[in-house]
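Batch job 17 of 40 flagged for manual review because the log was empty.
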Amino acid sequence: MKSTSNRITLNLDGNAEVSLKAFIAPIEYTQRNYHVEWDALANFRVVEPEKQHPTSVFRAFLPPGSVSVGECWQIEEGILELLRQLHPNPRLDLHINNGDSYGLWACLRAYNDKVADVVFRIHAEFAIEGGRFTPSQFAGRLIIDRIKEEIVFFQMHVPKGTLNFDVYWNTMGSDIGYCPQVELCTGRLPHGVKFTASIRKEKAERALISCFYKFQRINWVSLAEALEMAPAQQKPVHAVSLDGPLFDESC
């Protein structure tokens, strides 16, 4: 454990092991009913509900050097080993990639002398029989005991939403849908921790999304604010209507 000014380094004891639980709930909805008609999707289930992993695997989430709160870094591709607990064929090179879909990023959200809180975001998909399953994203959190160099809490999950995955069936084409739970987790989230330095989780998540999508770096305003600002700045309002989200891989 090292700290220099407002920067810290992180490490994990590679000799320890972590027991991860994995969950994939039955898919509840697809727009074109693929989750009923396509056997591979209807039977999309966890490979190993519980598995022991060497802590060294989680070093893929750690920064290569010292970092400060709010700073982002790229995660190493070794995290594929964790995704294989969910499904045997994960991949990071997405079927559809316009240049900003690929990536694995983490951000230091908070720390004190005892613990560090890391928030991360991963884009990955699974090759399933006859096609592929692409979650909107894997959002996650890793809390490390800096003194013992152990994992206190870990969660990597597909966030809930109206639609949270895209799927492609080779014989039929694309579809979108909702799965209530795709998750890897261990430990308990600590509460009431007083940090030396921190940012809100939402700010860390915005920093991460900006690592993927350049348009997220724009300071967007609501339509109501835009209508007020336009006359004052003598600028027109350019409105675009979309039928799906731009800020994840579910559409």
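Reviewer: the log was empty due to a logging misconfiguration, but the result itself is present. The chain has one domain: 2-233. Unflagging and moving on to job 18.
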